[in-house]
Automatic annotation (TrEMBL):
InterPro entries: CDP-alcohol_PTase-I, CDP-OH_P_trans, CDP-OH_PTrfase_TM_dom, CDP_ALCOHOL_P_TRANSF_CS. The keyword Membrane applies. The chain crosses the membrane at residues 108-128, 149-176, 196-218. The lineage of its organism: Eukaryota, Metazoa, Chordata, Craniata, Vertebrata. GO terms for biological process: phospholipid biosynthetic process. It catalyses: a CDP-1,2-diacyl-sn-glycerol + a 1,2-diacyl-sn-glycero-3-phospho-(1'-sn-glycerol) = a cardiolipin + CMP + H(+). This is cardiolipin synthase (CMP-forming). Its EC number is 2.7.8.41. PROSITE patterns: CDP_ALCOHOL_P_TRANSF (PS00379). Coiled coil: none annotated. The gene is Tmem269. It is found in: Membrane. Belongs to the CDP-alcohol phosphatidyltransferase class-I family.
Length: 235
């Protein structure tokens, strides 16, 4: 009887341990994606500082895909938390603010001021404009889409500084304009939106940079120009 009880306690203890482990994974899966996004942003910064802009752009596109996934995973697993929201904002500021601004190759006063203005626009968007008071609706262009468009422009123009600066000014205006944008819910909506996301993963991870940049440029542009006509939850 003693051996049976000891074995039973051991089995129950192992089950409880597995249960706690699975619960920890469930609660922190989305946080793990946010941390991965943050690491992608930090790595992109290091690549830009070493003038490895191609690698920097690739990491930013990976961060773009990770950011679209973390919120969906949190809601799917019922694991939304204040910590997750802070992690997401910090990762977004690092990846889509600081790391993206370095693609502008800020040399000289004007280039430096433009990079600072872009970072501050992302900061303002995350701090003040993101909540519209309407469920699944944003105020101000979400910075991941601004970043994806800038990255795609950089890759397709081989880093043409003039065109990048013009595009940056336009993205700043969109982010601080406080216009309404829908939560695209790529992974929680119609099948075709999930296919678009899967296509983004495939092109970024497995296809040449030119194909990935064209794909992400079309994706981000459609969201910016036709937000509710195409990307609303009801579209």
């Amino acid at each position: 009887a003693g051996i049976f009880q000891a074995t039973k306690k051991l089995v129950l203890s192992e089950r409880a341990g597995w249960g706690r482990t699975l619960e920890f994974i469930r609660k922190n899966a989305a946080n793990g994606l946010s941390v991965a996004n943050l690491l992608a942003g930090l790595s992109s910064i290091l690549c830009s500082l070493n003038r490895q802009y191609h690698h920097s752009c690739w990491l930013l596109l990976v961060g773009f895909l990770l950011d679209l996934a973390d919120g969906a995973v949190a809601r799917r697993l019922d694991a939304c938390s204040a910590l997750g929201a802070k992690l997401d904002d910090f990762a977004d500021f690092t990846t889509f603010g600081l790391a993206t601004a370095l693609l502008l190759q800020p040399q000289g006063v004007l280039g430096g001021l433009l990079a600072i203005a872009y970072v501050m626009a992302v900061f303002a968007r995350l701090c003040f404009f993101s909540s519209a008071g309407i469920p699944f609706t944003y105020r101000g262009l979400p910075c991941p889409y601004a970043s994806a468009l800038l990255v795609s422009t950089f890759l397709l123009t081989a880093g043409n500084v003039t065109l990048l600066r013009v595009t940056t000014i336009v993205m700043i205006l969109f982010m601080v304009d406080q216009g309404f944008y829908p939560h695209d819910k790529v992974l929680e909506s119609q099948l075709w939106k999930k296919v678009v996301y899967a296509g983004g993963v495939a092109t970024v991870l497995f296809l040449p940079a030119t194909v990935a940049s064209v794909y992400c440029l079309a994706w981000s542009t459609s969201y910016i120009i036709f937000p509710f006509a195409v990307w609303s939850c009801k579209a």
